[in-house]
Specification:
By secondary structure, the protein is α+β, with helices and mostly antiparallel strands. It contains three helices and four strands, in the order ββααββα.
């Protein structure tokens, strides 16, 4: 689920999981490490696009290291 709030797109953990193609525990672990600001909406925590891009960057760099 993604919603717009004040012109910013917000994503829940399930959407981030599907976009990145990793399991839920990996997404939650990485989010906890970052400790980003979150918005609660209908009993779900939502995170901004910047968090999604940061997580994508981390996962991509980990996968590239495995290839080398």
């Amino acid at each position: 689920m993604s919603i717009r709030r004040n012109g910013e797109r917000l994503y829940d953990t399930y959407s981030i999981q599907r976009i990145m193609g990793v399991n839920r525990s990996k997404v939650q672990r990485e989010i906890r490490k970052l400790d980003p600001p979150r918005i609660e909406h209908k009993n779900q925590y939502l995170y901004g696009e910047e968090i999604l891009f940061t997580l994508m960057e981390k996962v991509l760099s980990e996968r590239l290291k495995k290839i080398e």
